[in-house]
Amino acid sequence: MITRSISSTQPPRWQSLLAQGVRDVGELLARLDLDPTQAPGPLDPNSPFPLRVPLGFVARMRRGDWNDPLLRQVLPLNAESAHHPGFVLDPVGDAPSRRPGGLLHKYHGRVLMILTGACAIHCRYCFRRHFPYSEAHAARSRWQEAWDYLRDDTSIEEVILSGGDPLSLPDEKLGELTDALSEIPHIKRLRLHTRLPIVLPERIDDALSSWLENRRFQWVIVVHSNHALELDQTVAEALRKMSRTGAVMLNQAVLLKGVNDTAHAQIALSKRLFEIGVMPYYLHLLDRVAGTAHFEVEQTHARALIGQLAAQLPGYLVPRLAREEPGEPAKQVLAADL
Ligand SMILES: *Cc1c(COP(=O)(O)O)cnc(C)c1O
Ligand code: SF4
């Protein structure tokens, strides 16, 4: 059939949507009916960490609203270049945990693989915004080193595919990756850390679902959504599609001033996640990476917030408030202030 031969020679639709993302601050503001001269603070249209946001995510932003919580996550501000003591290039101590082949090994039994530096969206608060991807990611040419490391350490039961965003890689590469991992007998679980199902739900097409149906592994998918307004119907369908493959679905969020630092926003997020088959996992305190000080929420406020959630939600809908301390054997979970 004609349609079939055309579609088989074309790249998948998600790749063109990925390429069409907005990269120009003026264009983003025009799409949102915002006048740049009315900005609440100076913008930085030429940031070395440039604007990047898929059109579908822009469509979920409220027009004419500088305080839209989705917009705040992507809009480059001059404030990012201000120096703040304690805000550094590598706040979570990734450097000493680097292992050959683009691996990070911090915690017992699980290893994180930095597959790519690419993402569909550039989140201004990203804790890896200064990560040395070009020298430290698992480029295809370094995979053999990674397999050697994983094979030698039989305590490793879980590999976390991360980045950047691992789902920005093409399906063929993902397939090759899991084929190689499936030959290491002590690896039982694969975990995906990804924001793509939230920001570009078209990525979850039939080819991706078949990849996830690989039954050699137990899959855990940890998506990254910070606000209920991110989770529209298209995202809900993408997440349900992933969930139907049998994967355990979790969410991690970052607590961000001006985005989701109210009990109302957090409760709405937990309820919406549950509605679409995803359990809240971590609510991270901001990692103190250079350029992000304006997003920081005080720890006392964060603990009070978790207390409010605990008082209003069933226990399973309260995320763990977590902070990463370099050198510790696990992420630190902070108690709720009740
Ligand atoms: C966060 C992280 C993990 C995962 O930690 P969990 O508590 O199991 O979610 C694993 N490895 C590295 C390097 C990490 O930063
Ligand atoms: S999707 Fe994740 S890795 Fe990519 S910019 Fe956002 S926070 Fe950073």
Provide a descriptive summary of the structure in words.
- Helices cover 31% and strands 14% of the residues.
- The chain has 338 residues and is an alpha/beta fold.
- The protein folds into two domains: 16-81, no CATH class; 85-333, TIM Barrel.
- It has a ten-stranded mixed β-sheet.
- It is globular and about 55 Å long.
- The protein starts with a helix and ends in a 5-residue tail after the last strand.
- Mean pLDDT is 95; it is low at 1-5.
- The structure holds pyridoxal-5'-phosphate and iron/sulfur cluster (SF4).
- Iron/sulfur cluster binds next to loops.
Strand arrangement in the largest pleated sheet:
1-2-3-4-5-6-7-8-9-10
Supply the CATH architecture of the largest domain. Answer: Alpha-Beta Barrel
**Which hetero ligands occur in this complex?**
pyridoxal-5'-phosphate, iron/sulfur cluster
The number of strands is: 10
State the CATH topology of the largest domain. Answer: TIM Barrel
User: What is the alpha-carbon Rg in Å?
Assistant: 20 Å
Judging from the principal axes of the Cα atoms, what is the shape? Answer: globular
Question: In total, how many domains does the architecture comprise?
Answer: 2
**Average pLDDT taken over every residue:** 95
Which sheet architecture does the biggest sheet show? 10 strands, mixed
CATH homology-level superfamily of the largest domain:
Aldolase class I
Percentage of residues in strands: 5-15%
> If helices are DSSP runs of H or I spanning 4 or more residues, what is the number of helices?
13
Find the structural class using helix and strand composition. Answer: alpha/beta
* Low-confidence residue ranges: 1-5
The N- to C-terminal Cα distance equals 64 Å
Assembly context of the chains:
single chain
Family: Belongs to the radical SAM superfamily. KamA family.
Pfam families: Radical_SAM (PF04055)
Protein name: L-lysine 2,3-aminomutase
Catalytic activity: L-lysine = D-beta-lysine
